Amino acid sequence: MADLDVITRGYELVAARPASLLAALLALTVVAWRPSWRLTRTAVTIAHEGGHALVAVLVGRGLAGIRLHADSSGVTHSTGAGRGPGVVAMFSAGYVFPPLLGLGGAVLVAADEAQAMLWIAVVLLAATLLQIRNLYGGLAVVATGAVLVLVALRAPADLRTGFAAALTWFLLFGGVKACLELRRGRRGGRLRHSDADRLAELTPLGGGAWAAVFVLVAFAATLAACWVVFAPGGAPA
Predict the structure, then answer these.
(1) pLDDT at 237 over 60
(2) Is the pTM of this model over 0.85?
(3) Sign of the alpha-carbon torsion through 148, 153, 154, 158
(4) Strands (DSSP E) found in the chain
(5) Cα-flanking dihedrals φ and ψ of residue 155, to 5°?
(6) Distance of CA 217 to the CA centre of its chain
(7) What is the rounded distance in angstroms from the CA atom of residue 96 to the CA atom of residue 196?
(8) What is the pLDDT of residues 150-192, one digit of tens each?
């Protein structure tokens, strides 16, 4: 009987927020379908490299630039000591930054602040653009920012909120998928120069353990976003 009550309550919460559920399902479809994931994954890479860059600046490292590539890979160059807590923090930030951004977006959307969420994203993209050092990276950031500005300025309120919610879920689900791909790639021997491997050189934890930490953080952020949006008092959409 208790299980039935939980299921019923869960159905009521989801049914009360159909727009939020639709946005989540749309984002999940984009991430799960390989062709659309290939097309959109660069947005997750932008957030990933932006996380490296932001933390590098916060810990006092010099920032030499960001490069984004057409295969959805990227690299952030910083200057400073090759070891120490600052370097560990910088390498730790990449994979966890997209889902943490998604969680922040979920909080804003749930508070009916989709417009603020979109403009914060635009500001972050503008800061990232200043550090881009290759043509493809610049075009990718400008195109992403242009879409966000267009939605923020021109879209009706309902569409703007739905887009912000879909972007939030995309960062969450995309962040989870990127972390899982890292773990699978390391197990298959294809990824041996990743952030996890660099952290393994800097800390007592191995690369596999760091990859697992990234996965756990991404899943935790996604579960927290589900609670924020679908729990009582969450998003009214």
Answers:
(1) no
(2) yes
(3) positive
(4) 62-68, 74-79
(5) -75, 145
(6) 11
(7) 12
(8) 999 999 999 999 999 999 999 999 999 999 999 988 776 666 6
| Overall size of the chain counted in residues | 237
Q: Which two tokens stand for residue 28?
A: 């999940």
Neighbours of 233 (CB within 10 A): 7
Residue of 118, 102, 109 whose CA lies nearest to 47: 102
Which amino acid makes up residue 116? Answer: A
H helices within 79-134, ranges in order?
Answer: 85-110, 114-129
Q: Are 49 and 130 in contact (CB under 8 A)?
A: no
Q: Could you give the C-alpha distances from 38 to 2, 30, 44, 115, 138, in angstroms and in order?
A: 43, 9, 11, 27, 18
Our CA angle for 197, 212, 165, nearest 5°, is 110
How much of the chain, in percent, has pLDDT values that exceed 70? 88
Which one is predicted more confidently, 206 or 18?
Answer: 206
How sure is the predictor about 20, in pLDDT bands with cuts at 50, 70 and 90? confident
Q: Quick count: other Cβ atoms within 10 Å of Cβ 25?
A: 12
The Cβ-side half-sphere exposure at 155, using a 13 Å CA radius, reads: 18
Residue 237's SS3 state is coil
CB atoms within 10 A of CB 134: 15
